[in-house]
Amino acid sequence: MNHILVRTVVVLAWLVLPAGIVYLSVGADAGWAVFVAGLLLLLGYHARNLGRLLEWLKRPDPDTVPGTIGIWDDAFAYLHRRERRHRQKRKRLRRLVLRYGQAGRALPDGVVVLDAQDRIEWCNEKAERRFGIDAQTDVGQPITNLVRQPEFVDYIVAGDYSGPVRLRTSRESGLTLSVQIIPYHGSQKLLLARDVTQAERLEAVRRDFVANVSHELRTPLTVLVGFLETVRELQLDPDRVRSYLGMMADQANRMQRIIDDLLTLSALESAPEPPRDERIDVHQLIERLRSDAEALSAGQHRICLEVQGDFDLLGVESEIAGALSNLVTNAIRYTPAGGEIRLLWRAAADGAAFSVVDTGVGIEPEHIPRVTERFYRVDRGRSRQTGGTGLGLAIVRHALLRHQASLDIESEPGKGSRFTARFPGSRVVARQTSIHISA
Amino acid sequence: MASSEHLSKQYDSDLDALRSRVLQMGGLVEAQILTAVEGFSTGKRELFDQVIDTEPRVNGYEVSIDTDCSHIIVRRQPAATDLRMIMAISKTVTDLERIGDEAEKIARMSKQIHERDRLQPQRFGEIRHVGNIAVQMLRQALDAFARMDATQAAQVVREDVTIDDEFRAIVRQLVTFMMEDPRTISSALEILWIAKAIERIGDHAKNMAENVIYIVKGTDVRHTRYEDLEREAKS
Fold first, then answer.
1. Spelled out in words, what is the top-level CATH class assigned to the domain A107-195?
2. Does A279-430 carry CATH code 3.40.50.620?
3. What is the ipTM, given to two decimal places?
4. Which residue of A has its CA nearest to B20?
5. N or C: which end of chain B has fewer CB atoms below 10 A?
6. CB contact under 8 A, A150 and B28
7. In the structure, what pLDDT confidence band is assigned to residue B213 with cuts at 50, 70 and 90?
8. pTM of full prediction above 0.80
């Protein structure tokens, strides 16, 4: 303030000085005229700069702050500095907001921010996809207008957010979500949607497994016990007893097969990673598979071999042989007489693949993801008739998984199936030409 | 001045609440169809019972929303968009209630089929397929209603043609079943009823979509050619 007062006095002094000289040398009128002209100039200077300030305020930008001389220059300099600092702060804030937004978007869970009236304020991409909402256009829409599952609406209406609610979405087909609302900052709410489809499926598989084992063992056991009682209680002629004993032996064998398969599975599960330096002669193995297949088919199917590529596998021979022969046996079982079964061994993208292609009954698409589950059966009656335990493909998948290989299933009902075991490059080596190298 | 502003705010929130309730009813009806169709495919008894037990709740929604509509008309004397909205809601609720009835019908029929167990409905995947289309149409119609989106509503109207085609395909297939084995006739007829119910759901969803266009554009697009309707929706 003082500073400005001093400067104003100095400027006035500069005006008074020439006016005084003219007053003394020329006359009073001329002196006053010079003074007034000076004041007018000063007024013009102020008016011009005020105009520039107003003009700048319409579009404030630190780079176009006007520059001038005198007191106004100081004012403009302050303005410039202030505006620059503001701009930096804004930039920092914007970066911060952006980073939080990106963090929210990157979350694996769906996140929706709701206001006090349960209207959507913000949501991330996952939530957009899971609930079919649009982060741009659906802001302000009550969440229950778009997520309309009765369970969810009841959850919101009840207002008890102590636990999550399970929802099945029909938008992204067959997804199960665990949705939880977390109130924060007074009346705001955060909605989290976690995908629990996988967890739920695992839970179901485990539950089914125990139930299935008991069921699969109980059925033959019931038959066995029934016959035992009959034989013990009744006087039967020896022929009848013999036939009963035969049936009992069948059932006992069946139980034994199931238990053997279960033991194989659990051995596969607990065994250490298969070695990478044991070579499996695939050509020999496939040849053996073919002769086994011909024996099993007894001339009812045409069996072709297509071997392209000279490579072998690294791993445990008994496991791989068991897995592949299981695929071949299945193909023969599920292909009617007169059908064709092809065994293919060839190079595939980054590794090698063994396929069994049949012209059999095929598998309906809804069963394909589940056929490798334990005891899962497409057609119960048929599988038992042909002597299956329901564990074959589960064993195949496990044995392959241990060798980092995968099992692909393609099938068309009525046309046939193709089971492909894909081995990664790390398990495939060039075939040794010499038959045997002694160490 | 302040009091009239307060009143109109109250009015807006009344309308919003009404819309939300229509959408809640829609969600319930959607779940009913899904459960009924799943029951048809899996034959699980508890699913049929669930649909049949929930049906009164759908009816309750219809009655209470209709009452609210008349209350708003009497008390607020709505005009223009608001009036169109109330009229359309009243019609939409009727459509939704009918869809609820169709879902119940599907559940009852499926129950009978599964009790008789002659045609294997599991094998009849087309019902599930056409059921999914119907549910999707209903969902889109409800989404269009929530967002007041005439373009999306026009898409629903177009979908209805697909459902009609699928229905005719199912009829042809059932006719061949019945010719092959006359013992399947009664089950086949019941499956036909189910297919018809689903086809009706499609029609109701279409009506709802036309109501959305009516609210947004103010023109009645019932019984007009699809091209005209689409032009109207996009205008």
1. alpha beta
2. no
3. 0.85
4. A145
5. N
6. yes
7. very high
8. no
